[in-house]
C-alpha cells in the first residue's frame, strides 16, 4: 500500500473479529470516529505516562510496547502486528500508559476514539462481550508469559518461540521455516533474555543440528527433535 492510496476504513473495521458482527450503520459510526496514523520506523507513537484517547489497530507494520529503563535496558511486553489492537485496557481504566509504543517498521495505524468505543459498548451487548473476550485473552497471554519466565529455562523459551512461529515446509519431512518478525535484540527482550543469551542458544541449537540461522531466517530441520529438546 502506498501513501497515496486511500484506505477503506469501514471495510477494514468490518473484517476485524471485534467489529465483525456490527451492523453497517454501527460500522459507519465507528468509521467516522476513526483516523489514520502513520508512524515511521523508530518513531514513538506514545510515551509512558501519556493519557489514552482510544484504541489503536495495526493495518501494516509493527509496534513495540515496552517498559523504559533508566539503565537503558528496556523490557518488551508485546510486539503488535497487522489486524491486532492495543490500548483497550488503559483506556477503560482512564490511567496513563504504563509502557511506550515505538514503531519497529514503517507502520499504518487506525485510531478509534474512546468516545465511539464507549458509545458502542452502551448500545451493543455482543460488542461488549467481544471486547471482554479480547481483554481476557490478552490477560491469559500475559499470565502464560509469567509462567514461562518462572518455570522454563532460557533454551525452552527460545525453542517454544520458534515452534510457535514456525511454518511447516511442504514435503512432510518435519522441516519448518521461521521468519523472525523483528530484531534479535527485541525478541530477546520479549523472552526476558539478554541478546547474548539468545545468540548463545541459537549457536547451541545450530551446533546440535536442530536449526540453521541466516539473518532473520531460521530453518528448523526436525520439528520432532526440537520439541523433544524442550523436555
H/E element order: HHEEEEEEHEEHHHEEHHEEH
Radius of gyration: 20 Å
Q: Spell out the CATH superfamily of the largest domain.
A: Jelly Rolls
The strands making up the biggest β-sheet line up spatially as 1-8-3-6
What is the CATH first-level class name of the largest domain?
Mainly Beta
Q: Note the gap between the termini.
A: 43 Å
By oligomeric state, this entry counts as: single chain
Outline? globular
Structural class: alpha+beta
Q: Quote the average pLDDT.
A: 86
Number of domains: 2
Task: Determine the fraction of residues in helical runs and give it as a percent range.
Answer: 40-55%
Q: Label the CATH architecture of the largest domain.
A: Sandwich
Instruction: Give unreliable regions as ranges.
Output: none
Tally of alpha and pi helices: 9
Major sheet, described briefly?
Answer: 4 strands, antiparallel
User: Beta-strand level of the residues, as a percent range?
Assistant: 15-25%
Count all strands and give the number: 12
CATH fold-level label of the largest domain: Jelly Rolls
Descriptive notes:
This protein has helices at residues 9-15, 24-32, 88-93, 114-123, 125-151, 154-165, 184-190, 195-207, 223-230; strands at 34-39, 44-46, 54-60, 63-67, 75-80, 85-86, 100-103, 107-113, 167-168, 176-179, 211-214, 217-220. It has two domains: 9-150, Sandwich (Jelly Rolls); 154-230, Arc Repressor Mutant, subunit A (Orthogonal Bundle). It is α+β, with helices and mostly antiparallel strands. The chain contains nine helices and twelve strands. The strands form three sheets. Strands 1-8-3-6 form a four-stranded antiparallel beta sheet. The protein has a four-stranded antiparallel beta sheet with strand order 2-7-4-5. Strands 9-10-12-11 form a four-stranded antiparallel beta sheet.
Amino acid at each position: 500500500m502506498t501513501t497515496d492510496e486511500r484506505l477503506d476504513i469501514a471495510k477494514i473495521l468490518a473484517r476485524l473479529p471485534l467489529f465483525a458482527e456490527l451492523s453497517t450503520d454501527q460500522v459507519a459510526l465507528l468509521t467516522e470516529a476513526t483516523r489514520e496514523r502513520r508512524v515511521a520506523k523508530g518513531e514513538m507513537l506514545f510515551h509512558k505516562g501519556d493519557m489514552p484517547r482510544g484504541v489503536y489497530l495495526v493495518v501494516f507494520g509493527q509496534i513495540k510496547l515496552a517498559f523504559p529503563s533508566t539503565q537503558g535496558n528496556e523490557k518488551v511486553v508485546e510486539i503488535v502486528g497487522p489486524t491486532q489492537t492495543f490500548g483497550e485496557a488503559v483506556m477503560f481504566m482512564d490511567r496513563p500508559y504504563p509502557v511506550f509504543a515505538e514503531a519497529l517498521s514503517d507502520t499504518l495505524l487506525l485510531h478509534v476514539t474512546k468516545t465511539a468505543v464507549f458509545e458502542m459498548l452502551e448500545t451493543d451487548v455482543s460488542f461488549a462481550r467481544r471486547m471482554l473476550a479480547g481483554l481476557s485473552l490478552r490477560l491469559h497471554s500475559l499470565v502464560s508469559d509469567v509462567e514461562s519466565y518462572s518455570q522454563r529455562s532460557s533454551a525452552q523459551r527460545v525453542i517454544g518461540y520458534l515452534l510457535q512461529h514456525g511454518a511447516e515446509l511442504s514435503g512432510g519431512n518435519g522441516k519448518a521455516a521461521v521468519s523472525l518478525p523483528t530484531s534479535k535484540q527485541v525478541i530477546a527482550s520479549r523472552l526476558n533474555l539478554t541478546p547474548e543469551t539468545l545468540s548463545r542458544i541459537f549457536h547451541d541449537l545450530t551446533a546440535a543440528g536442530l536449526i540453521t540461522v541466516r539473518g532473520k531466517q531460521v530453518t528448523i530441520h526436525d520439528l520432532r527433535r526440537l520439541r523433544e529438546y524442550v523436555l
